[in-house]
What we know:
Blueprint: H1 2-11, H2 16-22, H3 40-46, H4 70-79, H5 84-92, H6 107-111, E1 148-152, H7 157-168, E2 175-179, H8 187-192, E3 200-203, E4 206-209, H9 211-221, H10 232-257, H11 264-276, H12 292-312, H13 321-333
Parallel strand pairs: 1-2
Antiparallel strand pairs: 1-3, 3-4
Amino acid sequence: MAWRQKARGVHGRIFAPAARRLEPPPFPTPPPPPPPRASRRSRRRSVPPPPPPHELAAAPEPGGAPRPSKRAHREALEAAPSGIVSGLDLGLLNSSRPSVRTGRPSAALQFAHFGLPQVPDRNGSVSRNHPPTLTSASQQPPLDDGATRLYMTYVCPYVHRAWIARNFKGLQHKILLVPIDMADRPAWFSKIYPENQVPCLEHNNKMIGESLDLIKYMDNNFEGPKLSHDDPEKQGFAEELLAYSDTFNQAMMSALKDKGTVTADAEAALDKIEVSLSKFGDGPFFLGQFSLVDIAYAPFVDGFQVFFVNIKNYNTIAGRPNMQRFIKAGTAAVPDAAPAR
Length: 341
């Protein structure tokens, strides 16, 4: 007995297992009796049925939370007071988790393929490269200091248009991001921009809003690769598609809110995009090369694909190879650069 204690005390874990092996094995104890088997009726009452695949929650990440269910998505969509932005913002807040059914990254991670770094997760965790979001308690940035600022929010697809244009033209260090909490807006924001919406660009002591007007302004007033074409045919087609973008978004959002199957209007809108992508055969984008039209549609085409899979069990790009190439090609089109603070 003494040498066992000495082995444990002096040599610790090295000799302790050997000493224990010298002891006779303990008498095995019988396993506990199994619990009484419940009847089939009681099992049906006590065990809830498994949820369908679209309502399964993804495994939570460290410090994160599971994805909302299909019902949560639908309730938020129906309660959205401002249409498309509020509806899409709901899903973008859960961007850090892949789709349960498809395994694809959800909307905002797909937008990273168009030059957007990962946005905050639904708990508000933001990469260290991202500026903090300003709330009603935040001070106003200095005015008339010559800086160019893009007032934005991380989870709005209209903002993503301006964000993609900024990154494509290489203006990360010339156009500063100023994220605004739209649910808790600073009082000073409505004073500098009475429309009180994002995105808006502060440049040369004036404010430019409306996402389509803003990306045209950025293309015409800043250096970097051009996002418009000199070909009259392509430019005319670009204006037609830019004018149609709101119609496309409204048709898709109405289909998301509809409790039935995918509507005929949504199918027609998707087919129009598919056909439009094949009009010019010199590239995967609408005009062949990356342009303002691609920026206008990218956040919505990609975002709607994720929402329809999770809410409607309908893949908007299945059987539409041009749309599949369009989303994939965005990976190389825009540099994935972190925004300047």
